[in-house]
Amino acid sequence: MAVLVDELREYPYVRWTVKHWCHMVSDASFEELHAFAASLGIPRERFQRDHYDLPPALRARAVESGAHEVTISDLAQRMAGPRGERNRARRARRAAEAGARADGRASLD
Asked: Taking the model in full, what pTM does it have?
């Protein structure tokens, strides 16, 4: 069970003063994520249905506190909750479709 953070990204067109942030999720449960966020002093109101956004300083503190650094793709596949389940199902469906196409090509050879 782990709390995950992806890479910092720039969002130059947002109207907020903070233009760089990352996402923090749990691969186990929202309870784990909320407890980790609380340990960093992040208020529960900053939870955005399945993740927290972290500016650079909070991301550094999260990593120092044990969050695992991952790519956005890995984060999307491992995150808890309905979006993570949809992402995993989509990846499995695409892999099955690619396998079926590969099997079709092999039978033509």
From this structure: 0.83
